[in-house]
Specification:
The chain is α+β, with helices and mostly antiparallel strands. Among the domains are: about 5-125, STAT transcription factor, N-terminal domain (Transcription Factor, Stat-4, Orthogonal Bundle); about 135-315, Glutathione S-transferase Yfyf (Class Pi), Chain A, domain 2 (Up-down Bundle), CATH 1.20.1050; about 320-485, Immunoglobulin-like (Sandwich). Helix content is about 45%, strand content about 15%. A hairpin with a 4-residue loop joins β16 (about 645) and β17 (about 650). It comes from Oreochromis aureus (Israeli tilapia).
Length: about 800
Amino acid sequence: MAQWDRLRQLPSAYRQQLHELYDRDALPMDVRHYLAPWIEKQEWQRAARDDAFAMVLFQVLLENLDIQHSRFVQEESFLLQHNIRRYKQNFQRYVDDPCALATTILWFLEKEKEILESAELAEKVQLLQVEPEAMETSSQQDLERKLAGLRNEVQCMEHTIICLEEQQDEFDFKYQTHKLEAVVDEARKNEQIRALQLLVNKLNDCRKSTLSGLNNILDRTQDIIDVLVKKELVEWQRRQQKACIGAPDNVCLDQLEKWFSCVAVCLFQVWEFLTKLEELVGKVSYENDPVKAQNPTLQKRVDTLLRDLLKSSFVVETQPSMPQGKGSLVLRTNVQFSVKARLLVKFPELNHSMKVDVSMDKEAPQIKGYRRFNVLGTKIKALNMAESTNGGMVADFRHLTLKEQKSGGGGKGVSDISLSVTEELHIIYFNTVFELKGFSVELQASTLPVVIISNSSQQQSAWASVLWFNMLSQDPKDVMFFANTPAATWPQFGEMLSWQFLSATKRGLDGTQLEMIANKLFGKKPNYDSCTVPWSKFTKENTPDTFWVWFDGILMMVKTYLEDLWRDGLIMGFVTKGKEKSLLKKKKRGTFLLRFSESVIGGITFSWVEITVTGEPDVKTVQPFTKVDLSQIPFHEIIRNFQILEAENVPENPLLYLYPDTPKDEAFGKYYSEKSGEDSPYIKYIKTKLVFVSKENTLEARSPMPSDMAQGEGLEPMNGLCGEAAEQDGDLYPLTPPLESYDPDPMMNGSVVDPEPPQDLLMYLNNPNLFDNDLLQDDQSLPDFSLQGFNCLLPQSCGSFP
C-alpha cells in the first residue's frame, strides 16, 4: 500500500500529527495528496545532491500541477483551481535552487515514515498487552540534564580560555614594556614590579582555575560516557538482540547518535582548550607553572575518554540478513546478504573519508570440524550520510557473500567438542580508522553471531539456534554458546514464542494460548514460572517432529494462509482437546472453534457441538486442513461452505456460532468471496471435499459432481469426520456407500470390500490400541491421527459419531 494511503488510514491521533506536519507552506497537503503516487516514486535523495536531476523533477512537478489545474477546471472546482495555481507560483522560488525543493520533499517523506513507525510500534505494544514505555525514561531525562550541563560548562570554559588569553596578553605587554623602559626612579620601578607580580599571581590563579574547571569537565564527561557505554548502549544491544527474534523493541539509533556526538564534540573542544593552553605556556611561563605540570595528564585523560567513546560508537545497525531468509543472522553460502555498520559520532567533515573493511572470524575457536569462511563481494565501503535515511554515518554493504574455505575437513583443532552445522556460530567484523584534528584511533564493530548454512533445508534448524542464542545469551561474542547450552525459563520461552507470532502476523500469543503450550511441554501445573525448557526439548527430542518443527509449521501456515483471521482473533489456535471439549459442551448447538492440530504439522481444524437425541452435547471434529487444502481454498470459505446432508433433507452447515457466541457470518463475512454457490471460484473443492451425508449415525462424503468427472480429475482425499474426529468420545463407523469399491487400506490386515461395515474394521476403529502409530491418552494430551489409507475410487467416505 502506498505510504500516503497508509497515513490516511491511521487512527485520529496520528492523522492529527499528519495535519500538524503539513500545517506549513513548504509542501501543501493538497499537492502531497493529488500527486502522491508520483511523489513517492521519485528519487528525492538523489535529487537533493544532483542539481541537474533536481531540475528535471522540478519541471515535472510544475507540469503535474498544470495537469491537476486543468482537471479542476473541467470539474469546475473553483477553490481547488485557485489553490493549485497559487501553489505553482510559490514553487517558482525554487527555480534557482531545485535541490532545496528536493531536500524539502525528502524531509516531509521521512517525517511521514516516523509517524507510521510510531503508529506501528503503538499497535505492537497494544497487541502484546503491555504498558507503552514513556518516550523518555527518568534515566534518559537525567542523562539529558547531564549533557546540557556539560555543554554549558564547555561554553563557559571557552569564555574562560578567552579571558585567560587576554589576561596573559595584558601581562606580557606590560612586562615587555617594563623591560624596554629604562626607569631610573627606584620607587617607580619597584611599583611596576609589584604591579607585574600582581598580574602574574592573577594569571597563575586563573590558570589554576582553568585547569580545575577542565578537570571537572572531564569528570562530568567520564560519568556521562559510563552511562552511555555501560548502560544505554548495552541496553540498545540487548534490544537489538531481542528485535532480531521478533520483539517489538525500539532499536533506532538516532538518540544514541545525538548523545555520543554531543560528548565527542565536547571532548574535542576540551582537546582544543588544552592545545591552546600549551600555546599560551609557550609564550609566557614561570616557575611552578600549573599548566606545565597538569596539562600532559589532562591531555592523556582526554585521549583516553575519546578513545573509549569512539571505540564504543562503532556499531552494527542492521544485522546480516538474506533477502529471502527466514530471519536475520541466518546466512547461506553463495547467497547475497546485506549488513549495515554505523558510527554514532557524527562529524560531517568525515563524510566519505573513513573506509570500512569487512572480515570474518578473527578469533575462531579451535574445535574439531569448525568451518571457516571468506567474505566475497564489495568488502570496502566508506562511511557516508547518503545511504542513511536519517543522515547517519553508515556503511551499507548490500552484496556480500560467504564461501567456505577448503581446509581438509575443517581442521583437527585442539578440542574434542563437536557442534552441528546449525550450532556453529560465526562473527563478521568491520574495521575502520577515525582521524580528526590530529587524533587517530582504530575502530572495530562486530555482528551478533550468525549461523551459516549450505542449503535451504537447514534454515528451520538454523533459525532455532538464532532464537535460542538471542533469547538467552548476554555475551554477543560467545561463539561457544552451544557447547554448553543453557535452558530457558518458561517466562523467557513463552515470550519468545509470542514474539514469533507478533513479528509474523502483528498479533502475539495471549496467556491462555501460552498456557496450552506450557501444558503440552510440562503437563498440567498450577504455575509454570519455575519450569525450564532445555535446548534438546526445543529442537532435538522426537526428531523429526520436534517441538520447534511443530510450532514453526503452525506459524508458517498462519503467516501464509490465515494471517487476517489470526490477527482479528478468530482463531483460538492453541487449546488442548480436553479444554476444547469442556468449552463447547457448555454452548448451544452449532458453536464451533478453530484450533491447531497437536500432531499434524501445520494443521488446523474446527470442532463444533451437536445435541444428541437424548439431549446430550456431542463435540465433533474434522480431520486437520493443511497447506494442501489452504492453497486451494481460503479457510474462511471452508467454514462458509462446510455442509452435512441429513438423510432426505437439504444440506446444512453445522457451524453456526464462533465461540463464544458470535454468528459465523458476522465473524467471517468480511472475508467471503463476492461470488457464492455455483459461481464460487472454489466450487470444485466445495463439491468434492466439503459435503457430507448423514445416514443412520454415519456420515458419507458425497460428490454432487458426475462420478466420471470426480474420478477422471484425480481428486485428492477429502477432509472429513475422520482423523482427529476419532479422538472424540463415541464409536467411529466406516462409511461404505452402496456400489462403491475400496482400495486396500495399508493400516489394516485386509481390504474393505463389503458394502456394510465389516466387524474387523469396526474393531480397529473402536479399539485405538490396535493402531500402529498412535495410542490415545486422556483428553488433556490426545494426539491427532488420520485414517490416511482409507481411500476410495470415488470421493472418500469418512466416519461420524453415533
